[in-house]
Amino acid sequence: MENNSINSVSKPEVSASPRLKPDLSSATLWNISFGFFGVQIAYALQSANISRIFATLGADPHDLSYFWILPPLMGMVVQPLVGLFSDKTWTRFGRRIPYLFIGAIVAVIVMCLLPNAGSLGLTLASAMTFGLVSLMFLDTSINMAMQPFKMMVGDMVNEKQKARAYSIQSLLCNAGSLAGYVFPFLFTAIGIANIAPEGEIPDTVKWSFYIGAAILILCVLYTTSKVKEYTPAEMAAFQAAANEQNVSDGQTEAKFDSKHALKVFIQVGIVQFFCWFAFMYMWTYTNGTIADRVWNTLDTTSEGYQAAGNWVGIVFAVQAIGSIIWAAVLPMFKNVKVAYALSLVIGGIGFVMVPFMTNQYALFVPFLLIGAAWAAMLAMPFTLVTNALEGSPRMGTYLGLFNCTICIPQIVAAALGGVLLKVLGSVQGNMMILAGVLLVVGALCVFIIQDKRK
């Protein structure tokens, strides 16, 4: 009897009679996404510390959102290009893996440079410029390393196992976030200095980036050594076999339905707009909100402000835990749209609660709720879109373009952040309430999605 599973270093040979994509072993499903753990540590360090870094360098709170324009802008440019070029690439190392490896190497270098923006004897303007350029390269490289993992699932995993594969990726994503978020708090606990001279970044943040860089490269090396991608010939054979099976079952040949894919792309993108708009304000204003409401200070040189910065990592870690828990609950729902919308509403309630919490431990409750929205945002949009893209020869290109539905709302949110903050009384906590309202609007938009698959 033919074995339909492959191990972590092998892949099926193309035969004269093409066959469907085989079931992959559990080890292979994990190996495909394992490097995502390291990439997500880097992403978590960036999302939890960028506002803290630039505020410590001397940025005005009304200007903080503008520093967040670069990350999604670079993602919108880089990820479609990675998808486009990797669709046409084949090397002895694979089609997606070379881009993954290059992105990881650049990310490691920049992670060692960015937290030193205030320690090089530069003027304030020069330090800000150095930080911005470093942030640009960091987000470019993280995006370049992140996208291939999503594409490899689309390339290598059959329809039956795809939901499991994305669940594994979601779990590793949250685990990496958890690690990255708590690093500054843990390093403070073991005695590393959490305050620094004015304009300099504390050592806790520096060491968090150094350790994160080391873990990132080790995880990526593991995935690149264990995973062997299918060749273009094998991919063509799998598609031919799928067409043959459909015809034998009395169905029409499985052709890519571009009109349906575009419709799902746009509909999911509308939901994404409100979701990522909301989360951009969480990343930008959580530090200031917690410092103001819990530690009663907005002085970036104070011990209280830096303690709040550490606590941001802790509550973001709580959010990751909430996401892991809710990800296990989501499959229990029979109606996908109800599960998706309910998750966003729960997250919206969490956002609204944040500025009303004056106890640091009470913040665990709203961030657990926010984790429910994050769990749905990680899994459901890509599941809906990759289902609609099944059979497309340009899966990577389309997924790269789909990343624009993540990046564009963040760019718009960042560009409007300073203006909206003034309109809302220059109180950073009010931006969290706005984020909650936006998530609820996104939940209402879920019901416009038309997924023809049962």
Describe this structure in words.
This protein is mainly alpha-helical. The protein has helices at residues 26-57, 64-67, 70-87, 97-113, 124-156, 159-189, 203-226, 232-248, 258-293, 303-329, 336-353, 364-388, 395-402, 404-423, 428-445. It contains 15 helices and no strands. Helix 1 (26-57) crosses helix 9, helix 9 runs antiparallel to helix 12 (364-388) and helix 11 (336-353) packs antiparallel against helix 12. The longest helix has 36 residues, at 258-293. Residues 1-17 have low confidence and may be disordered.
Low-confidence stretches: 1-17
| Order of SSEs | HHHHHHHHHHHHHHH
Q: Please give the domain count.
A: 1
- Calculate the terminal CA-CA distance, rounded to whole Å: 31 Å
What share of the residues does DSSP label as strand, in percent?
A: under 5%
Biggest sheet descriptor: none
CATH superfamily, please? MFS general substrate transporter like domains
- Secondary structure tally: strands: 0
List the helices and strands and how they pair.
Blueprint: H1 26-57, H2 64-67, H3 70-87, H4 97-113, H5 124-156, H6 159-189, H7 203-226, H8 232-248, H9 258-293, H10 303-329, H11 336-353, H12 364-388, H13 395-402, H14 404-423, H15 428-445
